[in-house]
Amino acid sequence: MVTVSVRDNNVDQALRVLKKKMQREGIFREMKMRREFEKPCEKRKREKSEAERRWRKVERKKKERE
Fold it and tell me: How far is CA 17 from CA 24, 28, 31, 60, in A?
């Protein structure tokens, strides 16, 4: 659960912090995905591409360390 405290009645700053936390947690992305039904074949395709992207990132990080 994401919580943000408002200090000195500064709501604008609290909203910015809230948006940043929600972005980091992936809430915006999840909301966008849940707007419409995703067919099972599309879900498998999306999950496979995400896994490949994560794998490439790990490999890239390994090469940078070497």
Answer: 11, 14, 19, 31
pLDDT digits (tens, 9 = 90+) for 4-43: 999 999 999 999 999 999 999 989 889 988 999 999 999 9
pTM attached to this predicted model: 0.58
Tokens for 27?
A: 């809430």
User: By 3-state DSSP, what share of the chain in percent is helix, strand and coil, each rounded to 5?
Assistant: 75, 0, 25
- Tokens standing for residue 65: 């360390």
DSSP 15: H
How far lies 7's CA from each of 12, 15, 35, 41, in Å?
10, 11, 34, 47
* Distances 58 to 24, 29, 54 between C-alpha atoms, Å: 19, 22, 6
